[in-house]
Amino acid sequence: xxxxxxEVTFSAAHRLRNYNGPCENLHGxxxxxxxxxxxxxxxxxxxGIDFRTLREQLASVVDALDHSDLNTLFDARHANPSSENxxxxxxxxxxxxxxxxxxxxxxxxxxxxxxxxxxxxxxx
Length: 124
Description:
CATH class: Alpha Beta
Number of strands: 4
Strand order of the largest sheet: 1-2-3-4
Number of helices: 3
CATH superfamily: 6-pyruvoyl tetrahydropterin synthase/QueD
Low-confidence stretches: none
Distance between the termini: 13 Å
Largest sheet: 4 strands, antiparallel
Order of helices and strands: EEHHHEE
Helix content: 25-40%
Number of domains: 1
CATH architecture: 2-Layer Sandwich
Radius of gyration: 15 Å
């Protein structure tokens, strides 16, 4: 099994409803998103998935979040825009956008700060 990882960043604001603390107020972050894809095989060039393909698809998902109020998107989903929920959103959207084949999204990590991260993955 091979694993390929790419990373992008975006800036956005959110507020955590019912948090009962300062994060309940509207505030922003410079988010970092790291996505990993597992590939069962590599092609004749020794590549499981091209870094460019992964980065472009990840960036296309994150572009919808960049410079936004994340509550607008997540309120429609009846969810708080927590790092955990953002990781799940990116995982699901990236899975839809990647080409069919021997590769699959394995894990998405969302860094709210340089030292605080939430991840989403599914058990095989």
